[in-house]
Amino acid sequence: MDKKRGSFSNKMGFVLAAAGSAVGLGNLWRFPYLAAKYGGGIFLLVYLILAVTLGFTLMITEIAIGRKTGLSAVGAFKALDKRFKFVGYLACVVPFVITPYYCVIGGWVIKYFVTFLTGDVAAAAGDEYFNGFISQTASPVFWFALYVIITAVVVIFGVEKGIEKASRIMMPLLVVLIVGVSVFCITRPGAMEGVKYYLLPDFSKFSATTVLAAMGQLFYSMSLAMGIMITYGSYMKKDCNLEKSVRQIEIFDTAIAFLAGLMIIPSVFVFSGGDEAALGKGPSLMFVTLPKVFEDMTLGGVIGTVFFLLVLFAALTSSISLLETNVSIIRDKLGWSRKKATITVTIYVLVLGAIVSLGFGPLSFIKIIGLGLLDFFDFLSNSVLMPIVAILTCICIGHFIGSKVVSDEVELNGAFKFKKFYNIMLKWIAPICLILILVFAVSEAMGWITV
Ligand code: PFF
Fold it and tell me: What is the mean pLDDT of each run of 10 residues along the chain (451 residues)?
């Protein structure tokens, strides 16, 4: 994302690039554990409703203002209305909060890839393997640092072309493998209970927290409310159909998350013997359950190795775009060279990320509002900052700047099919719902109310 703005060469190019940034650990690691924790079917239902309403509204808004102004978040808001420059700044804070802990999980993925590669499947499938690993001091920090360095090297030397080519092979392969593993999982004895838990909503499990969790996940997964889609929009050509592209990115991202859930949740039922408490395992779910599935498979060692390699790849394409975003924010603001900016941001990520990683070991005594460090940063970005940015975006565009900037931009490529719906969503439904959910769920997290 250099100052000189390139643009995507063909129509599919934009969708693929945006999807490459969107599909990552959010879909494969975060979505399944949230769905498991927040009631399965009800979470899935809320998520799908939010994706086609709120997700659609925000993504089309961000991409349209990016394409209209040709600028990234701060510049775009400033160009539309000087008073709202601060919304752009606030959006820029989010990637700085996410990147360090994203890379900690990335480090875990490398560790599992190497473990499978060296044939240690039985060890990885052991009950205490994961906790034993993350609670150490040096080892998780080492794998995390390796992950950060790989990401930083790509950002400094810019091998995007190679990544684009590799994506075209690895992404479809990932889909095939996820489908294959899901089929294997749901045909195990006992798995049907898990499939039911995942697909059939239980309305008694519904609460404001479910909605906040689903909403935070939606933003995270689709890279919304953090300025990223504005930047992507600024690279989009004027003849590319905006509304259609938004729908394609949403469908792709949601389909991968859905399949990841179908792969992991039934497996939890199989290996815990139907004990629902195992569903609440949180961030460790992918790392604890999947190795057991692979151990159970013929050729599981090989399949597991390929699987973690593909997850690693999906994670890297996302963290590269995260780091790149941080670097371009610094460069736009301070005018630094690419190298200086990348090195500075990398040091920041290394320091903060190492602290987050140690939060599972020697620093596990640190709790902020009752949460460990990784969970705290995750809560801060997904449940607080992103909803606030989303609320401000809706209010600024809907009530001050006018939704016409967005609809005019969309109409450059033909009729805006959902224009009426969009206007009502942007002006009223989205901001009101967002504010209510945010206030309610933050009050609950802080212990001010109990529901
Ligand atoms: N959307 C990515 C995921 O689901 O893993 C996370 C992400 C990547 C967020 C890139 C922001 C970003 F710029």
Answer: 56 77 93 95 97 96 95 92 95 96 97 95 92 97 97 83 74 88 90 95 91 92 93 88 93 95 92 81 90 90 92 91 88 89 96 98 95 94 94 97 96 94 96 89 81 60
In order, the DSSP letters of 176-229 are HHHHHHHHHHHTSTTHHHHHHHHHS--GGG--HHHHHHHHHHHHHHTT-SSSHH
Q: What is the pTM of this model?
A: 0.92
383: Cβ below 6 Å to ligand 1? no
Amino acid at 264: I
**Protein residue whose Cα sits closest to atom 12 of ligand 1:** 322
109 lines ligand 1 (CB under 6 A): no
| Structural element, H or E, at residue 93 | helix 85-117
CB 223, CB 449: distance < 8 Å: no
How far, in Å, CA of 154 to CA of 149, rounded? 9
Indicate whether residue 406 lines ligand 1 (CB < 6 A).
Answer: no
- Give residue 254 CA to ligand 1 midpoint distance, Å: 13
Rounded Cα gap, residues 264 and 267, in angstroms: 5
Residue 3 gets which letter from DSSP? S
- Amino acid identity of residue 157, one-letter, is F
Q: Whose CA is nearest to atom 13 of ligand 1?
A: 322
- Alpha-carbon gap, residue 93 to 332, rounded angstroms: 14
Closest ligand 1 atom to Cα of 26: 4
Q: Are residues 444 and 208 in contact, defined by beta-carbon separation less than 8 angstroms?
A: yes
Q: Which atom of ligand 1 is nearest to the CA of 221?
A: 4
> What is the four-CA torsion angle of 311, 315, 316, 319, rounded to 10 degrees?
180
318 within ligand 1 shell (Cβ under 6 A): yes
Distance 344 CA to ligand 1 centre (A): 21
Distance, in Å, from the CA atom of 57 to the CA atom of 410, rounded to the nearest integer, reads 12
